[in-house]
Amino acid sequence: MSELIAIITSPDPEIRNRPLDRYCQQASLEQLLQDAADLDRFRRESSNLYEKVRALFFLYAIHRFHLPTKGISRSSKIPFEGVQLRLKRRFEEAIDVFLHDHETYGASDSICSALGDSYHNLGFQTLADQVRRSVRSSRGNQWMFRIGHSADHPLRIRPELVKRSDEGLYPLLQEQTPVRMDLTHSGWSDIFFLGMDFPEGARVINTSVNLAVRGADGSDAPHPAKPPIEAFFRVIDEPVIRLTSVDLNASATIDSLAEMFDYARDYLGLLKGAVIASGLIPAGIEGAHQPLSDLLNKVIGPGLGFEVVSHVNGIPKGSRLAVSTNLLASLIAVCMRATGQTASLTGPLQESERRIVASRAILGEWLAGSGGGWQDSGGVWPGMKLITATQPTENDPEYGISRGRLMPTHKIFDYDDVSAETRQKLTDSLVLVHGGMAQDVGPVLEMVTEKYLLRSEKEWEARQEAIALLDEMVELLADGDIQAIGEATTRNFFRPITTIIPWATNLFTERVIQKAREKFGEDFWGFWMLGGMAGGGMGFLFDPAVKGQAMLALQTMMLEAKEELQDGVPFAMDPVVYDFEINEIGTTGELKGSNEALMPVAYYTLILPDLIRQDSRALSAGRRAELDAFAAASRIQPEMNGSIGALFDQLLPKRGPETDGAATLHQLLAENGFDQDQHEQIRSDLISGRIGIAQNRLPVNARIEDVRPTDVIDLADEPTESLKQMGEEALRAGRVAVVSLAGGAGSRWTQGAGVVKSLNPFVKLGGSHRNFIEIHLAKSRQTAAIYGTTIPHVITTSYLTERPIADFAAKISADPKQRLDLHVSSGRSVGLRLVPTARDLRYAWEEMPQQLLDEQAQKMQDSAHAALIGWAQGAGEGSDYTDNLPAQCMHPVGHWYEVPNMLLNGTLAKLLADRPQLTTIMIHNIDTVGANLDPVVLGAHLKDEATLTTEVINRRIEDTGGGLARIDGQLRLIEGLALPREEVEYELSYYNSSTTWVEIDQLLALFELSRADLTDDAKVAQAVRNMAARMPTYITLKNVKKRWGKGQEDIFPVTQWEKLWGDMTALPDVKTGFVVVSRERGQQIKEVSQLDGWLRDGSAAFVDGLCLWE
Amino acid sequence: MKISKAVITAAGESQRSLPLQRVIDRDGVEKSVLEILITEATQAGINDIGVVIHPADEEAYQAVISSQSAKITFIPQAKPLGYGQAIFCASPFTAAEPFLHLVGDHLYVSRGPQGCAQQLVEIAEREACSISAVQATRESHLPLFGTIGGSRLPNQPNLYRVSDVLEKPTPTLAEQHLIVSGLRAGHYLCFFGMHVLTPSLMTILGDQVQAAGPNGNATLSAALAVLGKQEKYLALQKEDQRYDLGEKYGLLEAQLALALAGDEREEVLARLVNLLAK
User: Fold this and answer.
1) ipTM above 0.90?
2) Were B169 and a residue from A124, A439, A725, B173 both cysteine, which residue would form a disulfide, CB within 3.0 to 4.6 Å?
3) pTM of the predicted structure, to 2 decimals
4) Containing structural domain, residue A131
């Protein structure tokens, strides 16, 4: 038996917890291949969830990190059949296809990447399937999936809710729910799988809290904290379901079952998920072609329906306080109360009921496409509690499948465990904040799971430390030593948490901590990371004597830090500070009758304008009674003050920022050289269908072949000494400069948040957080130091990035220690985004290969796509996209322009004037962090005497978007957008690394210019226009974020056009060479989720080795 | 244990008139529902029957009884204080003896020659304990019935020891507490409307009626739940059919079921086909 299987199956923790890496590092290639084959067989045969999943992650790590270091072949073709299966999430079959090639042709880097990726995905798919199965089959939830017809519905409304008051109002059932604060999550041990596999290590201390956002009314005065979540249920006298989210300004009247299951149609997915997870509309009825009124008739009565309203009191998204899970739980609880699924209609819930609510909240999250950990519905329970994972018993669906249960157990701390005094001291010391950063915690949770399964050495040690810290915390709470708690939570953050996931911290958080330390010294007791990662919801502990002062100071410090970093760090909102208190009740219900049965004021502000516009005779009797009651209350109740004013604002919106924004947009366009004629031409071509996503492609009869071995110079096979000498000579002579292309928005990096990616301090290298530009400059600094010269380094920009990059460059250029010859090349081209055509959206989503998602997520996505197509048609296909911040409406027109811009704006002329010996520039993308002035590559370029030398890398499965090909006999780069058939991409062995070496004089000649012409603006402009006309124009869809409300974000696909630098290789009169470089050098960091692998496979260390830090 | 008394409840507001309805029984003879229920009891060897009624109904009830095969005692329920209190009204009549209990708004159709009550009474006498007839019922009907949870007795076909009883549970609660192994998913053992009850039940009911006070919401299910904790309490799973006359078309369905189970089946079937063909 393979030693790795022994590690997985051993009952002895000493063996079970051995790190995979240690074994793999000493294993030979043959041994590792044999182990992989044994593991694959083992995971197919095992029925145990843990064994299966751990074997899958071992296989992933072996293929992704270890086999590539054992001298396997660098390149081979990735079979397209496998790629297609992977896109359809049929990972099991994809693995079979890849394994066939692996066994037939021998191990190669390309196939290993495909296998690693498929094993990784299959691992997470297996885990997600198990969570789904567990939650569906837990007792109390199963029946909902069996009810397929309204006539079978077994629930009935509580009779109290259908008794109208004398005024004609139905009573209002209100649920109030606190949110939960996580005191220590023991290394994200609340991830479902950790609880299910390692119950002994999965423990958290979780506290229910009431909140108020300080300064929400513009004052600094403390606000009374209250349960921030409210859910309301009321019977209505129409056979429909009305759902309203007061916070999201969304309301819908639903009259069909199909609409109820259409989660992404509007902002009410969470409410729909809650109503379905509560059993009120059973999940099993999805797809049944029956009138909704039949179901409502059965459950409530003839002609009746119900209304559900959610209200979160001002808590912004990303608070790390599990607002959405607790809102879901609150909505589920109120619907369960209404249908007799709880013993009591009002008051707190019983323990068994809380457990059902929590398990249904997990179900609701799955239905509505969100996710959380098992502690997240902690607000349902009262006070402070220890939540621990538990071993399953015979009645649990996990019995015999996993070591732990999906649902944990909750031990509520009584006053003997944590005294009232300690609770008060904690309240007096802790400042809760929302830093304002917008983050996606999803990748972090995946990384944690992966590292746990692989028992990566230092991460596993860190996990033990985090587990031990929980016991320490329990003792400290018992002792009431808050200062020591502050020390422990700080230690937790800077040691175990950031050891397990370095990305849990960020420059913003560390800067705020630093500022707090500097200002408050000994009175600052510690930092407390809430939930998944830092930057959003966070806690700071202070001596109670300074808490008031600290609250004010933190607000200022966070704002300062935000302003310093916001160019490169995505913030969804300005930071806020909360007032809070511990909630000792948990979720609780109240029945309001008569004139008290009114919804929150904001509800009426939202729905009244529509009602007022209706003929009053069309309103139902219930609605009229409700409006009468609201009108009466607004005259006498003080909390209703201002409701009439708010109502008028809603009815007759004031001149909004959009109008102002539009003026600024036109101004900005004019300032950035927007070409209105060209824009109109593109719009008309787009609407008429002359250009579009489908038209980007080469004709189907184009002959596209992979390159021949002699077409490229593979530096791994070449004697490099003479090349190195040539390169070194050029470097010493100061003949070489670097150009970093930083005009792009980096939309994949922050999913369209519109910050400057190149300024995002994404990784700690040399002891500090570094952004992309700092890394590139540090490489130039090192080259300059080695060759005793200075390296001119140009950062190109666009309208989007120019000001922040110029500010950053000015700051570091002013520092003589930086030793840099830095230039910023400003953008001279800009486009205005367009509302996409439905044709392009359909083509992109329906015709092009898409990653199929998990069943429910796919349903969500399909529904969102339908809504977005509706949006495009409603907003006007091909019309200007102006309904956003100006910067989000404009777009850079592709990095091809960034090089000619250096001609247009005089940067190249200045460089050549300063340094006439300059002959060569290395142009690279800001994402290609491993690219430096390597003398060997430079030598290869010089020796080849080409105008352009482009670097390529061997393809891995994640490298999509074109490659190096022979097209109708001509060797050139081809963009993914232009490939006529998807499968062609995987026939191409090499992928473009986006780094090009350019001979300046030859390039100028291509533009029909000489060095002397560079000062003739008109001639240069004409030359650039002529060359641009030879470049193809691509139409692309980009996702842009529109922010609104309190940290809410929508993502819209918009159309833009671009010209790309790689197409220069297609010009027949350009001599182009192609050099194959190593992956460390050539890979591009496009997405945050790549970072962990980049760090672990040694690429980050490789880059660090190229850098000389100031 | 010998069972010689039976209690039929017929005082419920919505069911007062149902036992007075006349139907054609299996033998083709027109009878009132009450008479059919009395026959069910007498077939089980019980001749002393108490009928709990609304005080105003005695005359009407008296009028529909033609058979002299049993001694009938009418027990008035002075105030409509619920099902549990109605049974408790019969406690002077049962006088600390075990009794068979039938509900007045149900009709029972057995599959074989033996009556539904007869088998229940025989097993109760043999086991010397309270026993409820139950039937595997789909979860969609849970809002209509009391439901038991329990475990099957070894080597005793269709007999269960009852561990829990809930009145009209939600499926959420039923799944957590009332799943009985061996039944199809989504099926529970719900009351058949027929029980043999020991005197202890009356004692428990008495306590509960008193606790419920003047609003009166004591249920038989709650009392049975307590009974199950105090003494041996079994459930017999019946394959026979029961028809709730109070449901929409309940009486029609019961009449058809009786007719199709009787000697005139062919004729009724022919008429039905004729009706369908029109």
Assistant:
1) no
2) B173
3) 0.84
4) 3-137
